[in-house]
């Protein structure tokens, strides 16, 4: 892949010793997205055929310094990662702390459908240890495509793309917002008021079937941490409240309806940021 820098007159910028700059990680390299970084450099992502002996490629991420040279601050530069099939980086953004978010598509090893992934790299180009699973991969019963990634002022990020369900012959657009950090919560407290009670079941059911407001903490609504939020979560909360505790919450679980701060924790089963907890309970947030 090559990088070309021009000045205000459209001429080759002489501040780069090599212009255009050429970076290679395999026989075939393509860049699909590039972003300027706070240190004056650039980061690009795309695809490379560096996987010897196959026709499939990995995600490629390249960091250039202000002079257009591969940044020596990254121990591995360019960096590649991926599964056994085809993986492509399609979007990249820099967080205020200097970390990078890289997003794109990953071909599912089992179904060959296109899933999408989000990876977080620290300022040194390594996978950030603050995410229990990194990169995170999301799939559906059909192909997913990713067309954009943007950071929000509060540190969350938004991913946009399209989803095509096989057999339906239709494509839907989607926009999804995520938090970069896992927030502490307790299972069952959908409305995040500090108590697990009937109101939480009502909030979850209203959201699922009546067009009601999204729960304040969707992670908490996923009482069993299995397959996202569904009716079984509501049934579980009701059994726990009125059926002699005939249901076991996934961790972090409440020890009593009016739980305490020690019951709160992050969710490493679903990485804590997959479903979202926009408004944590005051008991868990320390408010």
Itemize the secondary structure elements and their pairings.
Layout: E1 2-3, E2 21-22, E3 29-36, E4 42-48, E5 58-64, E6 79-81, E7 87-94, E8 100-107, E9 114-121, E10 136-138, E11 142-151, E12 157-165, E13 170-178, H1 198-209, H2 218-221, H3 231-242, H4 282-285
Antiparallel strand pairs: 1-2, 3-4, 4-5, 5-6, 7-8, 8-9, 9-10, 11-12, 12-13
Determine the number of helices (DSSP H or I, runs of at least 4 residues).
Answer: 4
Q: What is the global morphology?
A: elongated
Secondary structure class reads mainly beta
Unreliably modeled segments? none
Characterise the protein shown here.
The chain has 2 domains: about 1-180, no CATH class; about 200-285, no CATH class. The chain has helices spanning about 200-210, 220, 230-240, 280-285, and strands at about 1-5, 20, 30-35, 40-50, 60-65, 80, 85-95, 100-105, 115-120, 135-140, 140-150, 155-165, 170-180. By secondary structure, it is mostly beta strands. Strand 12 (about 155-165) and strand 13 (about 170-180) form a beta hairpin. It contains 4 helices and 13 strands. The longest helix has 12 residues, at about 200-210. The protein has a 4-stranded antiparallel β-sheet, with no helix packed on it. A 4-stranded antiparallel β-sheet has the order 7-8-9-10, with no helix packed on it. The termini are far apart. The mean pLDDT is about 85.
């Amino acid at each position: 892949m090559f990088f070309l820098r021009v000045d205000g007159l459209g001429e080759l910028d002489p501040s780069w010793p090599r212009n255009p700059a050429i970076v290679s990680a395999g026989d075939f390299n393509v860049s699909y997205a590039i972003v300027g970084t706070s240190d004056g450099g650039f980061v690009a992502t795309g695809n490379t055929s560096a996987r010897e002996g196959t026709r499939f490629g990995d995600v490629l991420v390249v960091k250039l310094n202000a002079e257009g040279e591969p940044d020596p601050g990254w121990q591995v530069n360019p960096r590649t990662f991926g599964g056994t099939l085809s993986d492509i980086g399609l979007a990249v953004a820099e967080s205020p702390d200097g970390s990078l978010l890289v997003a794109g598509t990953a071909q599912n090893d089992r179904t060959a459908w296109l899933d999408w992934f989000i990876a977080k790299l620290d300022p040194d180009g390594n996978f950030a240890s603050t995410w229990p699973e990194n990169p995170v991969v999301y799939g559906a019963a059909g192909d997913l495509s990713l067309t954009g990634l943007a950071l929000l002022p509060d540190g969350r990020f938004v991913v946009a793309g399209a989803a095509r369900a096989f057999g339906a012959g239709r494509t839907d657009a989607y926009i999804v917002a995520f938090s970069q950090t896992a927030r502490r919560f307790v299972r069952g407290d959908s409305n995040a008021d500090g108590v697990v009670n009937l109101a939480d079941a009502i909030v979850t059911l209203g959201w699922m079937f009546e067009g009601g407001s999204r729960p304040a903490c969707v992670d908490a609504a996923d009482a069993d941490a299995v397959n996202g939020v569904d009716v079984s979560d509501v049934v579980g909360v009701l059994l726990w409240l009125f059926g002699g505790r005939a249901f076991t919450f996934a961790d972090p679980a409440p020890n009593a309806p009016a739980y305490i701060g020690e019951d709160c924790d992050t969710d490493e089963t679903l990485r804590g940021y997959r479903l979202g907890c926009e408004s944590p309970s005051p008991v868990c947030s320390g408010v």
